[in-house]
Amino acid sequence: MSYVALYQHLKFSIMHELSVAMGIVKIAEDETKKAKAKKVTLIELEIGKLAGVEFESLDFVWPAAVKNTVLEDAERKIDVKEGLGQCGDCDTVFEIQHFYDSCPKCGSNLKGIIQGKELRVKALEVI
Ligand SMILES: [Zn+2]
User: Fold this and answer.
1) Which domains does the chain possess?
2) Please, which residues have CB less than 5 A from ligand 1, an ion?
């Protein structure tokens, strides 16, 4: 029973990362065309720890997602952004691992996410 449940979660997770990877490919294809270039040699991504992306899953789907695209031979750099929240009650800025983390100073659950939800293509090197 539990084996089946785990399998379903994993499959769902990889589906999500595959759609993220394909979104990145789309951006790279568009930008390469705009720059009148042929392919991408380096792609820099910015991904926050609270963006809901599993890095292992992204690595797993990447080769299949970029095959026969401008990104096929591109080096990939990921700038990982830590999760940062600011307490709505005492203004303390603190590192958060999960959305439900509360303020370490006053224990409040009222907070704003100020960093960690990033999911974007920062830069491309094209030739
Ligand atoms: Zn607080």
Assistant:
1) 2-126 (3.30.2320.80)
2) 87, 89-90, 92, 103, 105-106, 108
